[in-house]
Design goal:
Shape: globular
Distance between the termini: 16 Å
Bound molecules: flavin-adenine dinucleotide
Strand content: 25-35%
Strand order of the largest sheet: 6-3-8-1-2-7
């Protein structure tokens, strides 16, 4: 059993009310275990507002606040895994691990137990976060992209976390003269420009050109300013990838399948509402397609489950190897 330790949060960057980047430093000064970009670690807070499973009138299970006999909310520890968004070289140099987290919202609007507690952190006062002193996971370039000449990474929302670590590490290694001839293309999608974590850093890595890296940022709820930004694409990550491969939008494909059925009007409305995919202006679908020759490529994805399912469909339709980091399937034991 790996040892449990405690760290303190030394940096907290709020990107939006529900999205944050934070850095954790070991409290006893000992270093974190070595790791590879793309791996994860288990974090824990002691004061989480607990929930319990009940079966609703519809026969389906759901989670509701867990109350004691005096009807006070039960509070206790919760442990979950989080992908590390720092690069190994940053941890070796600065000693922190960095994370990119979203405040979870359950089906009934109830905030997630651990993320609600994390988002209550006040630096210097209540900033302690427990961790299991073991870094795990095989969502790494050497395991999932072995042999590929072209690596296409698609990170939606906080699913960018493992790819942020990979891009920073590749750039660092290239700076030290260690680079291969692999082509890396990173699609990064979120709702708004403010929610595109690591955007400036990734733009700078692409501009430095130390390794073959193309960065494709995109927002699915573009404002007027976003549409004018030549470096920013629009549309969801999966639809942007469909655009590159000359496929219809997911919503268009679903509407076509629903023709003649009861869902036609709903599907037509979804097509109307979908933000049309557009690439940053210096990129073209043909140029990006030329980077990912199917037999030489792998698509790695992490993030929104429905987006990942569609990316799998796109990969299969184009005969490209597909790999994903599934946060839902590998949920650790909950306290
Ligand atoms: C390998 C891995 C890496 C991950 N990396 C990241 C990351 O980088 N960033 C990130 O934001 N997230 C990441 N996650 C997800 C993260 O681990 C948590 O699942 C997420 O933050 C929600 O935790 P929570 O306690 O706030 O929500 P929870 O309270 O756990 O609620 C989440 C869902 O669990 C169910 N639930 C609620 N209460 C209970 C209960 N008592 N028992 C069982 N189920 C319950 C509900 O369906 C609810 O919608 C990762 C997950 C894995 C497995």
């Amino acid at each position: 059993m790996a040892e449990r330790k405690t760290g303190s949060v030394v940096h907290w960057q709020q990107l939006s009310p529900v999205l944050s980047i934070f850095r954790l430093m070991p409290e006893d000064g000992s270093p974190f275990p070595d790791y590879k970009a793309g791996q994860y670690i288990a974090l824990r807070r002691e004061d989480c507002r607990l929930t319990k499973r009940v079966i609703g009138e519809d026969g389906k299970p759901r989670y509701v606040p867990d109350l004691d006999e005096a009807r006070n909310r039960k509070v206790g520890p919760v442990t979950h895994s989080y992908s590390i968004s720092s690069a190994p070289f940053e941890t070796a140099r600065e000693r922190y691990l960095e994370f990119y987290v979203v405040l979870e919202e359950g089906e009934s609007g109830e905030p997630g137990r651990l993320t609600e507690s994390l988002f209550r952190i006040h630096r210097g006062e209540d900033d302690r976060v427990g961790y299991v002193n073991r870094i795990a996971g095989d969502f790494t370039l050497d395991k999932r992209a072995a042999g590929a000449k072209s690596v296409v990474m698609v990170g939606t929302g906080t699913g960018l976390a493992p790819f942020a670590g990979m891009a920073k590490q590749l750039d660092h290694e290239a700076r030290e003269g260690r680079r291969d001839d692999t082509r890396y293309t990173l699609f990064h999608a979120n709702r708004t420009r403010a929610e595109l974590a690591y955007h400036e850093e990734l733009v700078a890595i692409e501009a430095a050109g130390r390794f073959d890296f193309v960065y494709v940022p995109s927002v699915s709820r573009p404002g007027a300013q976003d549409r004018e930004d030549p470096r920013l694409g629009t549309g969801r990550g999966n639809n942007l990838l469909r655009h590159v491969f000359g496929m219809p939008l997911k919503e268009e494909e679903e509407a076509r399948r629903a023709e003649g059925g009861p869902d036609v009007a709903r599907m037509a409305a979804a097509v109307e509402k979908a933000v049309k995919p557009a690439l940053p202006r210096h990129l073209t679908p043909e140029g990006l397609r030329a980077r990912c020759v199917p037999e030489e490529s792998v698509i790695l994805t992490c993030g929104n489950p429905s987006s990942m399912a569609d990316i799998k469909f796109i990969a299969e339709a184009n005969h490209i190897r597909y790999e994903k980091e599934d946060w839902k399937l590998v949920l650790p034991a909950r306290s």
